[in-house]
Amino acid sequence: MAGAVGRPRKHSPRRRGNTAREEILDASAELFTTRGFATTSTHQIADSVGIRQASLYYHFPSKTEIFLTLLNSTVEPSTRLAASLHDVDAEPTLRLWALTAAESRLLLSTRWNIGRLYQLPVASSEEFAAYHEQRAALAGVFRDLAAAIVGEDDPRVDLPFHIALSVIEMRANDGVIPEELSQDHLPALAIMLADAALAVLGAPLPEQREQRTLALLAEVAKES
């Protein structure tokens, strides 16, 4: 049949995902976070999905491209939110709280702890320079919002970004999603870390912070 070429399966689907591409990303996320990048081969990824190795290249030209796609998925949604927050008529405390909660929420919404990928030696390669630029820009937004609260010369301005990312060390990597994305509530851990990001700056917590953040996330989702 037309359309079947490029994705012949050796076995029935064994991975989470609505498409072969999503299944490949799921398998790769597990292998990269449990075995590392260098010791994971495209043959192992294909076998884990249940497709032929040649079929994997129909969806991704290289193992590096798979890794980059996973890396980008940890930062792109928060980057879009950061851009939207720039035009929001809200106090810096709410914008910083929302960004911290959203980043933590994102890192809690995946089966595998893909935030760990940044810690792998390969992530520092020049091949991932564009990702590093995007990550640095996101860190800059965190810093600017913190500086708007405590001043640019305050040594605490870099702490909120690291507090948001601390969720990586606080979640498991067992193939179970800690917190599904919800339009109705934020994960308790994300709320705790967002509160901590303001507490470290000695800033008051915004009123209705969870509800207002959920509204912002809904608006960003509409624009995506």
| Residue runs with pLDDT of under 50 for 5 or more positions | 1-13
Percent strand equals: under 5%
Domain count: 2
Structural class: mainly alpha
Helix content: 55-70%
Kindly state the number of beta strands: 0
H/E element string? Answer: HHHHHHHHHH
The profile of the biggest β sheet is: none
What is the count of DSSP helices, taking H or I runs of 4+ residues?
A: 10
* Mass-distribution shape: elongated
Integer-rounded radius of gyration:
19 Å
Distance between the termini: 33 Å
Determine the mean pLDDT: 90
Keywords for this structure?
mainly alpha; Arc Repressor Mutant, subunit A; 2 domains
Kindly describe this structure.
With 224 residues, the protein is mainly α. It has 2 domains: 20-70, Arc Repressor Mutant, subunit A, CATH 1.10.10.60; 74-221, no CATH class. The chain has 10 helices and no strands. It has helices at residues 20-35, 42-49, 53-59, 63-73, 76-85, 92-107, 129-150, 159-165, 188-199, 209-223. The protein is elongated, with a radius of gyration of 19 Å. The model is unreliable at 1-13 (pLDDT under 50). Residues 1-20 are annotated as: Disordered. It holds the Pfam family TetR_N. GO terms for molecular function: DNA-binding transcription factor activity; transcription cis-regulatory region binding. Keywords: DNA-binding, Transcription, Transcription regulation.
